[in-house]
Design a protein that fits this description.
Structural class of chain B: mainly alpha
Shape of chain B: globular
Low-confidence stretches of chain B: 558-563
Distance between the termini of chain A: 54 Å
Number of helices of chain A: 1
Number of strands of chain A: 0
Shape of chain A: rod-shaped
Helix content of chain B: over 70%
Structural class of chain A: mainly alpha
Mean pLDDT of chain A: 86
Number of strands of chain B: 2
Mean pLDDT of chain B: 87
Helix content of chain A: over 70%
Order of helices and strands of chain B: HHHHHHHEEHHHHHHHHHHHHHH
Largest interface: A-B, 23 and 34 residues
Largest sheet of chain A: none
Distance between the termini of chain B: 66 Å
Low-confidence stretches of chain A: none
Oligomer: heterodimer
Radius of gyration of chain A: 17 Å
Number of helices of chain B: 21
Strand content of chain B: under 5%
Largest sheet of chain B: 2 strands, antiparallel
Chain lengths: 39, 563
């Protein structure tokens, strides 16, 4: 019998989404800072 | 470790007294630099990125995040986490679409409240929009504030283990009993009412910053520590699988089709963010565009830490405390089990912080609705700066005391009201805020239809779905709606505030609310959280009525005053 494990959907929901949001926010922050844009 | 142990109780009580003392100190410091109406209602538009950013997020996440969100994953496993993407999508819309635009629009208009922004945007010569907006805000906020104060009382009492009677005294010939709940409500609510009353917007924002950081620290550190104590991710997976194999999936044991309504409803929570008056006023108070640019990153990071920290806490608690009667208490019970007393006291302070940071922001919004929008706006008593400050302070104290009376009354409001109030505010104002920020062809009649539809569909959907709990009364909802619409039309004609445009708005929103009540009885739609249909129907009502009944006037973003 294999050890129980989280499904891929659960991993995406619990870790993939938040990591993607943080990376997106950092990229947008860096880009807007570099361009000196108004938000 | 039990909270009934006197040494533990003493340590937790000492931390709580220190925490409440910090709030009073911050309120007192803010009061010293608050000198006029704009200061009191909007911190003089001087907030930096940290205060505006953390204040906006801490205000929007109430006791729900440290109690309800933890309880969601405790009850449903990983599939209980769907609230987190919903909330973060709401954050993204608010931070990248709403925040910069509403800051500039409110500055150009000279608006201090959300009602002010909307009424100046589309013009409101007979104060119809202003009165309807204030009524929706006051009703929702009072429910919300009283429910939060109830939650504060319960958290104090249950964590300190003082749920029984503590003593009694005579007041005006009546015997009044003090129990742990009453003490909790009085302590928490009185302190935050005083801080809000003296410190105004600046006091609220600064205390929010302190409390928001406390929440983030607690929800970042504690679940990871608890997970390590449990034995890591593998031990968590084994423990959850032993309880229910469905806890390891994103859709639960029932599968995608059965969970569809639940998932859409949880994602739909995010629709509410643009319409929250206590959140968008934080963006209006930011000092400049650079603060908005910086606060976005701060707010997103805070949201990720808090939402997923709360979710992980619920999962770990499910394995370590499988027999908990109420999963919403998991954070407090688990911290008492695993941490030294003083640190557990900090965790309780974080739970109470989530509640009080929301209460203070909502008290201020409710008070601004009365003192600024009604007394100074509708009644036309424009006050000088010092008088405006005095009226604001008195109104906060009055609204706070009213909330305390509600919380202490026999009717202890629960999170049922919080979800309904979130939906009513989100659906009534969310579509309008988004439309107000562009050059859309919306008229004040369309805006009126949107507000009435958002609030009306929320109530009709909720009662229509719960019809089995009280069939006699809830079956009357369509008739009550029709009677209310007719009464509004008759009153408007008598007092001469309702012309053709207002009549179209009232008839359209009445018809939509009655239609929504019929729709909710139909199949799986009843599973949907009421905000989802209410938001989209309010948006449709706004656009349709604006097309049928256009009206000139208002202040367009970036343009000169046209009214």
């Amino acid at each position: 019998m294999t050890d129980p494990h989280f499904t891929w959907g659960a991993i995406a929901l619990a870790t993939g989404f938040p990591v993607a949001v943080v990376v997106l926010a950092i990229l947008l922050h860096v880009r807007s800072g570099r361009r000196g844009d108004r938000p | 470790m039990s909270s009934h142990d006197p040494a533990v109780l003493g340590a937790i009580a000492a931390v709580m007294v220190a925490y409440l003392g910090v709030l009073v100190f911050i309120g007192w410091r803010a009061a010293r630099v608050t000198h006029g109406g704009e200061d009191f209602h909007l911190a003089g538009r001087t907030l930096g990125a940290w205060a505006a950013g953390i204040s906006s997020t801490a205000s929007s996440e109430s006791g729900w995040v440290t109690l309800g969100a933890v309880g969601m994953t405790y009850a449903h496993g990983v599939s209980g986490l769907w609230y987190a993407p919903g909330c973060l999508l709401g954050y993204l819309v608010n931070l990248y679409v709403v925040a910069p635009r509403i800051r500039r629009l409110s500055r150009d208009q000279g608006s201090l409240t959300l009602t002010d922004v909307l009424t100046r945007r589309w013009g409101d010569p007979r104060n119809v929009l202003r009165v309807v907006s204030v009524a929706i805000i006051l009703a929702s906020m009072m429910c919300y504030v009283a429910a939060q104060m109830t939650a504060a009382g319960k958290a104090f009492a249950s964590t300190l283990g003082i749920e029984g009677p503590l003593g009694a005294f005579e007041l005006l010939g009546r015997r009044i009993e003090i129990d742990g709940y009453t003490l909790g409500v009085l302590l928490g609510a009185l302190v935050i009412t005083i801080v809000t009353s003296i410190g105004g917007f600046r006091g609220v924002a600064w205390t929010d910053l302190f409390q928001g950081l406390l929440m983030a620290l607690a929800l970042a550190g504690f679940p990871l520590y608890a997970l390590a104590r449990l034995g890591g991710v593998d031990a968590l997976a084994q423990g959850l699988a032993a309880a229910d194999p469905g806890f390891l999936t994103a859709t639960g044991r029932a599968g995608v089709s059965a969970a569809f309504g639940f998932i859409v409803g949880e994602l739909g929570i995010g629709l509410g963010y643009p319409g929250m008056p206590h959140v968008v006023t934080r963006y209006m108070a930011a000092r400049d565009d650079e603060q908005i640019r910086r606060l976005r990153l701060i707010a997103i990071l805070w949201g990720v830490v808090v939402f997923y920290g709360a979710g992980l806490t619920g999962l770990v608690a499910r394995v370590m405390l499988p027999d908990l009667a109420d999963g919403e208490r998991a954070l407090m019970v688990l911290s008492l089990r695993l941490l030294p007393a003083a640190v557990a006291g900090l965790m309780l302070a974080a739970v109470i912080s989530a509640i009080l940071s929301t209460v203070s922001s909502q008290l201020l919004v409710a008070a601004s609705a009365v003192s600024y929008d009604v007394i100074e706006g509708v009644m036309g008593r424009r006050a000088d700066d010092r008088r405006s400050l005095r009226i604001g302070r008195i109104t906060v104290a009055a609204v706070g005391l009213l909330g305390i009376l509600f919380a202490l009354s026999g009717v202890r409001l629960v999170f049922w009201f919080v979800l309904a109030a979130w939906s009513a505010l989100g659906a009534s104002f969310g579509p309008l805020v988004l439309l107000a920020l562009g050059r859309s062809r919306v008229s004040r009649h369309g805006a009126l239809a949107g507000m009435l539809t958002g609030a009306g569909v929320t109530v009709a959907w909720k009662l229509g779905r719960d019809i089995q709990s009280n069939p006699e009364a809830f079956r009357l909802v369509p008739w009550v709606t029709l009677a209310a619409g007719a009464a509004l039309l008759a009153f408007g004609a008598w007092r001469r505030f309702a012309g053709r445009g207002e009549a179209v708005a009232i008839v359209a929103s009445t018809a939509i609310v009655v239609g929504a009540w019929g729709l909710v009885q139909w199949g799986w739609l009843g599973e949907l959280y009421e905000l989802v249909p209410a938001f989209f129907l309010a948006l449709a009502a706004t656009l349709a009525v604006s097309a049928v009944a256009p009206a000139p006037g208002g202040i367009v973003p970036g343009a000169e005053v046209t009214r």
